[in-house]
Predict the 3D structure of the following.
Amino acid sequence: MKFVTFEEGGKLRVGVVVDSNVIDLNGACVSYLAKVKKVTNPEETACKTVPVSMVEFIAAGEPALKAAKEVIGYVEGQKFNVPGAVFPLEKVKLKAPIPRPPKIVCIGINYEDYRKQLGYPKPEVPVFFIRAQSTVTGPDEPIVIPKGGKWPGTSSKCLFQEWEFTVVIGKKGKHIPKEKAYDYIFGYTMIVDVTAHDIEMIQPGHVMYQQRCKAFDTFCPMGPWIVTKDEVPDPHNVKMIRKRNGKVECESSTKNLIFKIPEILEFLSDIMTLEPGDIFSTASPPAGPEEGLQPGDVIESIAEGIVNLRNPVILEK
């Protein structure tokens, strides 16, 4: 299943993409409960069955997924004619599937091809940093090149597109053995770990500049959806494609990961409690472009057959 967060009537809703439609899970569940199950208070029951925020939906676990499948079956049986609960995908405003993840953990230096290109030593353990929630933006929403303020190092003229296959945590866990890692995974999405490379290179490798160069608003596009883990049989055999203005600028594969997903999850859970809705990236293949993203560019961050995240680039006004 492909789960999305979308905006309808000024409110964020949890939906699922089926063919060229987006089903409002809560709205369709109300109809299902009222017309099929004959429930007395369908609105109240629906909110408990399929919560209206993505983090709450993920936290609800297998019962929510089972309910979603039932609702999808109901909508398909109605030939998608469920007024107020089914929308054409092309007319829906998709947002980041998790607009404010509890934790955003970004892994670095984890593609062997990129590590060799940079000339870095192979890390002994996964390298990571924590992103601010306020950097998150959604599909087709602009990445803003910061013009800065009074302080030096608050503007940039060289943004890099780092596109990162990303894991969504499904349930709470600590000290999770890698053999059980997939039990704690809900699904996969894409983020762009936008980096102000000129700020990063003020003092290469210095933690303060590493944090600052990734902390600007809009520097973490996410989406367009979360694909459940059952639809990705081998997350370590995914073709990764970076495009700008329709042109392929880099290709790689998750085959090149130094630390595999179960190892990353095990490592992180030895440090922090992982919770539903947390995300961690698997790092970026070779980033770019060398000259930096330019106003008017449109980038695509692709995990082939899973997600294609598209974002325009603009200059801060």
Q: What stands out?
A: The chain has two domains: 2-94, 98-315. The longest helix spans residues 62-77.
